[in-house]
Design a protein that fits this description.
mainly alpha; 163 residues
């Protein structure tokens, strides 16, 4: 119960910060999504079923504030969080380099997938934005990943089976 409550609080805090504070911390108009970085970090550290759940929840919350098309972020976040969960199965999670590089690559992939989906829907988007947002996300992920890792290693966040 404490795990679920902690995740709900963090997800809503990151959603609020993404939409209220991050635009003020933009560099040349580009800023990362703390919610997406948290979702990817959590997905890399935990299993793919947790990744699926957090991907859907964060995608819906991002779609609420996404003007162009509802459901795009839900689909893309769900797929990329499950992919991050699969990537995390083969990593040393306590090391930061590969997970943070994976977050960079997955952020680039999210931008490309959203660009493709929006082009199919005849909505124009600048492809140059994708690279800048991915670089900024990479920088933020360097600091955020270790915090998420420490959170996921707390006793109440680890699921222990009791028989």
């Amino acid at each position: 119960m404490k795990k679920v409550l902690t995740l709900i609080i963090l997800i809503f805090v990151f959603t609020i910060v993404d939409n209220s504070v991050m635009p003020f911390l933009a560099v040349y108009g580009y800023y990362p999504s703390l919610l997406f970085i948290f979702a990817l970090s959590y997905s890399i550290i935990n299993d793919r079923w947790s990744a699926l759940g957090i991907g859907i929840i964060t995608g819906v919350l991002q779609d609420i504030f996404f003007i162009n098309a509802f459901g795009v972020n839900t689909l893309v976040n769900m797929l990329l969080c499950v992919l991050a969960g699969e990537i995390g199965r083969n990593l040393f999670k306590d090391k930061r380099l590969i997970p943070v590089c994976s977050i960079f690559g997955l952020t680039l992939l999210k931008g490309i997938l959203i660009l493709i989906i929006l082009n199919i829907l005849h909505i124009q988007m600048n492809a140059y934005n994708i690279i800048n947002i991915a670089i900024y996300s990479f920088i933020v992920a360097i600091f955020m990943y270790k915090c998420v890792y420490k959170l996921c290693k707390k006793d109440y966040m680890i699921r222990n089976w009791k028989f």
